[in-house]
Amino acid sequence: MEMKLSEATQILERTPVVLIHMLRDLPEEWVRATEGDNTWSCYDVVGHLIHGEVTDWLPRVRMILEYGESRSFEPFDRLAQFREDRTQPIERLLDRFKELRERNLAALSSLRLGAADFPRTGIHPALGTVTLKQLLSSWVVHDLTHISQISRVLAKQYAAEVGPWKAYMGILNISIDRSGDRSGVDPVMP
Amino acid sequence: MEMKLSEATQILERTPVVLIHMLRDLPEEWVRATEGDNTWSCYDVVGHLIHGEVTDWLPRVRMILEYGESRSFEPFDRLAQFREDRTQPIERLLDRFKELRERNLAALSSLRLGAADFPRTGIHPALGTVTLKQLLSSWVVHDLTHISQISRVLAKQYAAEVGPWKAYMGILNISIDRSGDRSGVDPVMP
Fold first, then answer.
1. How far is Cα A65 from Cα A67, in angstroms, rounded to an integer?
2. ipTM score of the complex?
3. How many other CB atoms are there within 10 angstroms of residue A29's CB atom?
4. DSSP readout, B59-110?
5. Strand B121-124 relative to strand A121-124: parallel, antiparallel, unpaired?
6. Adjacent-strand bridge partners of A176
7. Digits of tens for pLDDT over chain B (190 positions)?
8. How far apart are CA A124 and CA B159, in angstroms?
9. pTM of the full predicted structure?
10. Which of residues 36 through 75 in chain A touch B, CB cutoff 8 A?
11. CB-based contact (8 Å) between B167 and chain A?
């Protein structure tokens, strides 16, 4: 499907509300549960999304518009959330993500981008030349993959409890070696 | 994690609202998009969840309580949603799923089940002896896996649009042979 800015924005603006409904007021044990050693909890994923709003997606849109290929994007620190105050409740992180996303989408809208801007290019520090359209599409896909990850992390907490149904629940049988594994099913490198 | 009825219920009651926020008012093209031939769209998944409410989860709880192992559960028809009126808008399906889930959780609550009931058993037509606890846990995991699936189906619509970022988005590289494949990443056989 061809990326349309109106549709991409429609999905991006839903993500914080979807995550709030999935995670707010869940018992702490659920929010902090992982898929095993060196994998991320729902708490970690929301922290990662916050960092993406602050340092990644919209700043890179601006880099393309201002510098094109003359300056490379800043590398994204995918472990930044582990250096934040981790005593904050998930509800505060969810609210912060929602605020940042709203602000970023308002800023994006004020840039009045059109399809004519989509082929504009910038330099990703690892991927090389990328277009504005690819960046905006990746912002959307990144959200969706993390919603998918959060559902999977929660599902796995009952992996033993489902007994013989486990054979029917393919998601429980996906093993994640480590959260940073590019070959795994998670996107962690925006 | 050990299944607690209060926590299981808390997750089950969120699912319709989460799906409403993900899917309501999305363009029809997105709602009906699949991962390829013989895979399910978001529309199909919501139809499947509706059939689970009507014919599967709560009816099986009642079967265990009433008949124990003396009668086998009815097999679940995982393709039933394809025989429904498929011209209904997704919003109507989402509302129907929400109503059914609310009604089923109210009925579940009125059964006043406790941990002492969890080891009670019934007969699954394919899996054999299963416990009430396994059934209730599977209801939760089934919801979560379908939320994960819906996110993945949506993400894949931009698989080409993300360009080189595809290498970082593991979810885009999961191939689903067909929606009924038990070895795949989707649960389709409750």
1. 6
2. 0.92
3. 10
4. HHHHHHHHHGGGSBPPPP-TTGGGGS-TTS-HHHHHHHHHHHHHHHHHHHHH
5. unpaired
6. none
7. 999 999 999 999 999 999 999 999 999 999 999 999 989 999 999 999 999 999 999 999 999 999 999 999 998 888 888 888 889 999 999 999 999 999 999 999 999 999 999 999 999 999 999 999 999 999 999 999 999 999 999 999 999 999 999 998 878 877 664 444 333 334 444 4
8. 18
9. 0.92
10. none
11. yes
**How many residues make up chain A in this entry?**
190
Q: Which amino acid is at B105?
A: L
Closest Cα partner for A158 from B7, B29, B125, B105?
A: B7
**Does residue B175 contact residue B44 with C-beta atoms inside 8 Å?**
no
Tokens representing A46?
């929301």
Structure letter (DSSP) for residue A145: H
Q: Which two tokens stand for residue B95?
A: 């509302």
Radius of gyration of chain A (CA): 18
Distance CA B160, CA B171 (A): 13
Task: Tell the residue number behind the tokens 């209060």, with chain if given.
Answer: B6
Which of B21, B131, B185 faces A163 most closely, judged by CB atoms? B131
| Paired tokens of A89 | 């409740």
| B147 close to A (CB below 8 A) | yes
**C-alpha distance from residue B141 to each of A72, A86, A147, A162, A168 (Å):** 42, 27, 15, 8, 11
CB B22 within 8 A of CB B69: no
Nearest to B137 by CA among A74, A185, A158, A4: A158
Whether B189 and A168 lie within 8 Å, measured CB to CB: yes
Question: Whose structure tokens read 């690819």?
Answer: A134
Q: Is A145 left (phi over 0), alpha (psi -120 to 50) or beta?
A: alpha
**Rounded-to-integer distance, Cα A117 and Cα A17, Å:** 29
Q: Give CA–CA dist A89/A95, Å, rounded.
A: 10
